[in-house]
Amino acid sequence: MGSLEYATPPLVALNGRARGYWRGVVQTLAGVAALALLTFVCDRLGLNLATALCLFLTLIILLSLWGSFVASAVVSLVAVASLDYYFTPPTFTFQISDPFDGIAVVLFLTTSGVITALVSRARSRTDQLVLEANLRAEEALRQAQAELAHANRVMLVGEMTASIAHEINQPLTGVVSNAGTALRYLAAQTPNLEEARLYLGLIARDGKRAAEVIRRIRALVKKMPPRSDLLDLNEAIREVIALTQNELQRGSVKLETRLSSELPLVPADRVQLQQVILNLIVNAVEAMSDVGGRPRELAVSSGSESNDVFVEVRDSGPGVDPANLDRLFQSFFTTKPEGMGMGLSICRSIIEAHGGRLSATPNEPHGVVFRFTLPTVVDDGADHAG
Questions:
Q1: How does pLDDT run across 88-104, given as a tens digit for each residue?
Q2: Looking at the DSSP assignment, which residues form a beta bridge with residue 359?
Q3: What is the pLDDT of residues 101-119, one digit of tens each?
Q4: Is-contact 332 340, C-beta < 8 A?
Q5: Non-local CB neighbours of 173 within 8 Å, separated by 6+ positions
Q6: Burial per residue of 363-382, b for 16 or more beta-carbon CB atoms within 10 angstroms, e otherwise
Q7: Phi, psi torsion values for 95, nearest 5 degrees
């Protein structure tokens, strides 16, 4: 499935065309009203045709700069009729007795038409350049957000170096131990092939386990475009928990998981969602590092409601001032002495890009509950890809 993009729904496009139509109507009516007022003023002041021509042309130029081509063209035609009726003898008729007056009116119509066309073309070109600049800016912003998210993942992995080393060291220690045992069975005077085969199987198992840990780490730190696949959220949670086991043990944190057994698949990017879950778990462990006199408990749960699935990460840390709960997701706001204040902001951006919502509420009696929801179906107007 493709990368995260949001297409314009047909209804939105239709509403945009309707707004454009009514905007043109309003501009035309405003231009005609301004022309009527100017005609009245010129008539009351007794201005001649040449002066009226200049004033009318000025009005057409201003309307061209503000309004649409159609509005300017309509007002130009009305202006020609007004000049003919009020300022060319015989007045108050649509007849022109002097050929030079007719030439002047024709020149006015030609000039106003040329000006309207040139201004309209210049405005279209300007709008196109602005649109292209906006698209380039949006693309640069998306790239910057992707780079920032990648940097956050790398930083998280760097903070978990000890845990990662432990996760890899365990299966490698098993490989070495089982290899030694298998060699002893094979080196016996009567080789015990069955036992050697058993321990070779254990070596293969531990090798696969180490390879799986490395695969997960590579997936987190590798630069890849966002993708959307039907994701088993519980499986993604378990993989992250496996990476954080040593962190939990070092922090004396008791982990409880309550994962729904009937959780539907969600269209999402695995790496990005695992980044969010990893952020929330690491933040919870760090928040409880100074807790004493009560258990350090972390609960990770998942479930579904209506057309959404949810994940909750609940800790028993010191909590956060209720006045700062919403500020937790602002860039550069942090409650940690050495924190950068970017992790939760990136997490919220990721969840919102998936059409979900990330929030924080106080936990009772201690700590914070972080909860994010994700839709189980993609909205008709958007093509999600994590």
A1: 888 888 888 778 878 88
A2: 371
A3: 788 888 888 888 888 888 8
A4: yes
A5: none
A6: beebbbbbbbbbbbebeeeb
A7: -105, 150
Burial of 266 (0-12, 13-18, 19+ CB in 10 A): buried
Phi-psi region of 56 (alpha: psi -120 to 50; beta: other; left: phi over 0): alpha
List helix spans (H) across 160-192. 161-187
Find where tokens 């490395």 sit: 214
Exposure string for 310-342, b = 16+ CB within 10 A, e = fewer? bbbbbbbbebbeeeeeeebbeeeebeeeeeebb
Which residues in the chain show pLDDT less than 50?
Answer: 1-9, 11-13, 339-340, 380-386
DSSP letters along 192-251, please?
-HHHHHHHHHHHHHHHHHHHHHHHHHHHHHS------EEE-HHHHHHHHHHHHHHHHHHT
CATH architecture of 226-386: 2-Layer Sandwich (3.30)
Number of separate helices (H) and strands (E) present in the chain:
9, 7
The CA-CA-CA angle for residues 324, 329, 331, to 5°, reads 110
Cα Rg of the chain (Å, integer): 36
Q: Dihedrals φ, ψ of 19, to 5°?
A: -65, -40
Task: Using DSSP bridges, classify how beta strands 254-258 and 297-305 pair: parallel, antiparallel or unpaired.
Answer: parallel
Burial class (CB in 10 A: 0-12, 13-18, 19+), 28: buried
pLDDT in tens, 21-69: 788 788 888 888 988 998 899 888 888 888 888 898 888 888 887 777 7
Q: Residue 151 carries which side chain, given as an amino acid letter?
A: A
pTM for the predicted model, two decimal places: 0.50
